[in-house]
Specification:
With 73 residues, this protein is of the alpha+beta class. It has one domain: Double Stranded RNA Binding Domain. Helix content is 48%, strand content 19%. It has a 3-stranded antiparallel beta sheet, with helices on one face.
Length: 73
Amino acid sequence: MKYNIYIEKNEDGWLTGQCEQLPQAISQGENIEDLMENMKDAIELVLEYQREKFLEKYYCKLVALMMRKVVSC
């Protein structure tokens, strides 16, 4: 998947980026290459966090659905 990154240059000359689709993914770098590498890491961390939270919330229901049982989680 491709993500849109908003980039700004701050007073110190560093670049700051924020992902449009995942606003929690924010990072910075001295140059565009560093920023984009750091943004990839930030996006991966946000996606990993979201996956973990999803599984915490729905794991029991997913297992029950796969087993075709109705349970209260």
